[in-house]
Structures are given as structure tokens and as C-alpha cells.
Design a protein that fits this description.
CATH architecture: Up-down Bundle
Number of strands: 0
Largest sheet: none
Shape: globular
Number of domains: 1
Number of helices: 8
Oligomer: single chain
Order of helices and strands: HHHHHHHH
Structural class: mainly alpha
Radius of gyration: 19 Å
Length: 212
């Protein structure tokens, strides 16, 4: 057993840090699902407001974690890793919220096919993260790594959707400048949200390597 793990064995457990991360992942997943409801006709303003509420919930969890970190000497995993995971999970929410706001701001009445595909990838990524993060609590690092690999594949698929969509926007003469601006802004926020999911997955892999 590594020395740092041996030390943690004898000190009080601070498992509520896992609670914070798991709650953040759940809120991010819920926001992604709400955003995707645009594809079934939910009013964009309603979606924006619901996602905004969830983003506020996520911010509150981050604040709770930071306060807990300030009071805690020994954490269940390195505090730098906890902070990185929390920040990247918060980024997912932030970019999901940015996409919802952009859809309203630019008057997107219905998501385009690439937007829909990226929203679906975001939902899938956040669902995998929601089921993967609890493996940290149980020190099942192999399962955590498996989940990270799933997210990485989904992000790669999403990146291909994004690149193809951007290429089409700039090569199709039938698309005017306003449509290019509108679609690129939303696609960019969605791509960044999916990308942050992969960054969470990367952080999980690093933790697994440290502790396995």
C-alpha cells in the first residue's frame, strides 16, 4: 500500500467529497437532458431558464466543496485532483448553460441536425460520468478507467460532428452570414461542453493510475 494511502487509512474518512463530485455530475447530466428537450419542441426560453437554475445548483455545490476543502487536512484523494474534477464538471454546466443562452439570443427556433447530435453526445457523456464517478468512492479504479474510455470515444465522435458541421457552414454558398454566426456560436458551446466531459475522464484516468 502506498504511504499516502496508509496515512489516509488511519485518519478520519472525508467521503463527503465524493458526494460533491457525484452531485455535480448528476446536475450536469440533468442540464444536458433539459437542453436536449429542445429537439422535441420544448420552448427555448423555458429550456434556458431551467438550465440556468441547474447551473446555479452546480455553483452552490462547488462552493460547498471549496469550503469543505478549506476545513479539511486529509482528503480521500489528492485535493488537486478533487479541485480539477470539480472545475471540469462545473465547466460542463457552464458551457451547457452558454449553449442554452446562445440558442435564445440568436433566435434558434429548432436545433439543427449537428446541434442535435452534439446534444445527444453531451447527454451520453454526462450519463457515463454519472455512473462512473461513484467508482472512486469504492476504489474501483478499473471501472473508473473503463468509463473514462467510453467518454473519450463519445468525445471523439462529437468532435467529428463539430468539424463536419463547421466545414459545411463555410463551404455551402446557400448559408448566409447570419446563419453561420448563429450556428457556429451554439455548436462551439456544445463542443466545449463535450470536450470538458473528456477532460473529466482524463482526470479520472490520472487518479486511477495514481491509486491503482
Amino acid at each position: 500500500m502506498p504511504f499516502h494511502a496508509l496515512i489516509r487509512w488511519f485518519l478520519p474518512k472525508e467521503d463527503h467529497f465524493y458526494d460533491f463530485l457525484e452531485r455535480q455530475a448528476t446536475v450536469a447530466r440533468d442540464a444536458a437532458r433539459v437542453l436536449t428537450s429542445l429537439t422535441t419542441g420544448t420552448d427555448p426560453i423555458t429550456v434556458r431558464d431551467r438550465v440556468q437554475d441547474l447551473e446555479h445548483q452546480g455553483d452552490a455545490i462547488v462552493h460547498e466543496m471549496l469550503e469543505a476543502l478549506a476545513r479539511t487536512f486529509v482528503t480521500p484523494i489528492d485535493r488537486e485532483d478533487l479541485q480539477k474534477l470539480s472545475k471540469r464538471l462545473d465547466d460542463i454546466l457552464d458551457y451547457t448553460n452558454a449553449a442554452a443562452r446562445a440558442i435564445v439570443l440568436f433566435g434558434v427556433e429548432k436545433p439543427t441536425e449537428p446541434m442535435t447530435l452534439l446534444m445527444e453526445k453531451l447527454v451520453q457523456c454526462t450519463e457515463v460520468l454519472t455512473t462512473t464517478l461513484p467508482h472512486l468512492r469504492h476504489h474501483d479504479y478499473n471501472a473508473a478507467t473503463d468509463g473514462a474510455k467510453q467518454v473519450a470515444k463519445l468525445e471523439k465522435d462529437g468532435d467529428a460532428v463539430f468539424r463536419d458541421a463547421i466545414s459545411r457552414l463555410f463551404h455551402d454558398p446557400a448559408i448566409d452570414a447570419k446563419d453561420i454566426l448563429r450556428e457556429r456560436e451554439v455548436l462551439d458551446d456544445l463542443e466545449k461542453a463535450v470536450n470538458r466531459c473528456e477532460q473529466v475522464a482524463d482526470a479520472l484516468t490520472v487518479i486511477a493510475v495514481k491509486h491503482a
